[in-house]
Structure formats: C-alpha cells, structure tokens
Amino acid sequence: MEHGSSIEINTEWDIVAARQLGRNEAKETGFGTVDQARITTAISELARNIYLYAGKGVIKIEPVRAGQRAGLIITASDEGPGITDLQKVMEDGFTTSGGLGAGMPGVKRLMDDFRVETEVGIGTTITATKWLH
Amino acid sequence: MKMRIPILKLKDTLIVSIQVELDDQTALQFQEDLLDQLHKTSARGVVIDLTPIDFIDSFIAKVLGDVIHMTSLMGAKVVITGIQPSVAITLIELGIRLENVKTALDLENGLEKLTRELEA
Fold this sequence. Notes:
heterodimer; A: alpha+beta; Heat Shock Protein 90; five-stranded antiparallel β-sheet; 4 helices; globular; B: alpha/beta; Transcription Regulator spoIIAA; 48% helix; STAS_dom_sf (chain B); Anti-sigma factor B antagonist (chain B); STAS_dom (chain B)
C-alpha cells in the first residue's frame, strides 16, 4: 500500500495538480470529506508558499503507518531563501506577501503534526501529518 | 487551459454557479468577467453559488472577498450560497474570516435574501 507520490512545483498549475493528487491520496487512505478538505487545503497553501517564496520545490504525499495508526504525510521542500524569523512566521496574521497565503499557523491547525526545518540560504522543509481517527 | 465561469442574468440579478475547481487564473478571470457583466447589464445584485466546491484555499478566499468588495464599490449586492460544511470548517481553521459577507444555505434562499436586501 506504499503508493506515495510527489510533484514538482514550478508554476501555478502545479499547485492545482498537487492538491488534486492530495485529495486522491486522502480519499484512498480513507479520510472523510472534512479531512479530505483539510489535507487538500494544507497542500494548496504549502505549494503556494513554495511558488511564492522559493520559486520551485517539491511536494511529497505519502501514506504512513505507526502502530495502529494510519495517516498521510505531506512534505514540502524547497531550496529557497529559508525563513529568517520562524517564530514570527508562526504567528497568526504575519505575512510578507501582502496576505496572499493564510500562513503557516493555518496549515498547522488543519493538520495533526507539523514540523518546520529551515536554514537561511539553504531552504525549507515542512512536514505535516494527518492521522485517521 | 484557461476556463471561463458562466455568468447568467435573471431580471436585475447575475447568477454564478462555480462548478469547477478554481485555479488562480480562472479565479482572476472570473473577477474581471463578473465586474464587466455588472457594468454592461446594470444588474443590482449577484448570487454566487459554491455548492459543488469542496475546498477553498486562502487564494480563492482572497479573490472571493475582493470580488465582493469590488461589487459593492460598483453599487451592487452579493450573496454567497451553498458553502459546504467541509469548506466552512477549513476556512475557519485556516484563519480566514470572510467578514461582512452575506450568505445563504442555498441558491433559492440566496435569491430571496438578495431580493429583501435590494428592497430594503
């Protein structure tokens, strides 16, 4: 059942492709309609952040299993500028794009686990997991 | 790849049913088309039905919010209808508040609401 897939983000159209892929994976994993919407929306935001801030990157969507739990891991990675002030980025309402993205706190609320690794000048990797309940 | 969202006119109201997943370009094109139609037809109200839409991200929300404000700048009123439970939940969790937006459960209720708004 390890069927995960990944998609390169280079253009606006890739954002649409990434969320369609995410919706399909979420459906296949057995998520209900609300969680499907959460996952699709989170992917859309993460893909848009890559497009806006790094220009290009990759979204990976993989099923996970941990003991009795099953879920979906979304990994968004880029080799962009990195995040200078992570604490600020995680505050509600903080934006450097004039309000285009809902920001990271929103994505964090949509998902169950959320981790950011970032280094200025090297890039950013965000890992977000949703578990089946 | 560009799609156009059809805009229907019924008396002095424009009716839009968004039935496809909106990509950025289609959303922006819709914004322009709707304002254009308002100008051409002198419609006084707009109902935008979102029943088939199963998720709205921050970009689409921003375009929708903008189009509502632009429409009111032009002197017309907008009612949004058919927001699904999953869409309502994800919008709020995402932290997006479509403030001062008139909404109704479905198209029928939306048209009634709009008529009352226009008479007020």
